[in-house]
Amino acid sequence: MTSSGLELILTTDEAARLDSALKAYDHLSGGDPPDPRALAAAPLLRDWQCALVPTMVPVLAGEVRNHPALPGTRRVATSRLLLLDAGAGWARTLSRLYRLGPAAR
């Protein structure tokens, strides 16, 4: 936790990796192929398949109201928690900013 009360949930290294991944995502999803030299140097993955793997990432769980995609009031688990400042009443997740009400007891 920093002296201002801001809790950095995402480490500096994780933030740099995320930034790099987002830049690559923008490049590749825009229709540009991977750089041929980078592709040639990349590890080879064989006998692969897509899979869902549960992961341990920090999230917030609670009751949400006024969510743009979830009408009404409901219990949710947020996307990955990036920053938390409980004292200032906000949290930033991978998908959005949240105002924080009272914490669970």
Radius of gyration: 18 Å
Physical arrangement of strands within the biggest beta sheet: 1-4-5-6
Number of strands: 6
Report how far the terminal alpha carbons are from each other. Answer: 21 Å
Low-confidence stretches: none
Shape: elongated
What fraction, in percent, of the residue positions are helical? 10-25%
Query: Structural class, please?
Result: alpha+beta
Total DSSP helices: 2
Please indicate the count of domains: 1
Beta strand %: 15-25%
Main sheet, how many strands, which sense, barrel? 4 strands, antiparallel
How do the helices and strands follow one another from N- to C-terminus? Answer: EHHEEEEE
What's the average pLDDT? Answer: 87
Protein model, in words:
- With 105 residues, the protein is α+β, with helices and mostly antiparallel strands.
- It has one domain.
- It is built from 2 helices and 6 strands.
- It has helices at residues 12-29, 36-41, and strands at 7-8, 61-65, 73-77, 81-85, 90-93, 97-99.
- Strands 1-4-5-6 form a 4-stranded antiparallel β-sheet, with no helix packed on it. The chain has a two-stranded antiparallel sheet with strand order 2-3.
- The protein is elongated.
Chain-wise SSE layout:
Blueprint: E1 7-8, H1 12-29, H2 36-41, E2 61-65, E3 73-77, E4 81-85, E5 90-93, E6 97-99
Antiparallel strand pairs: 1-4, 2-3, 4-5, 5-6
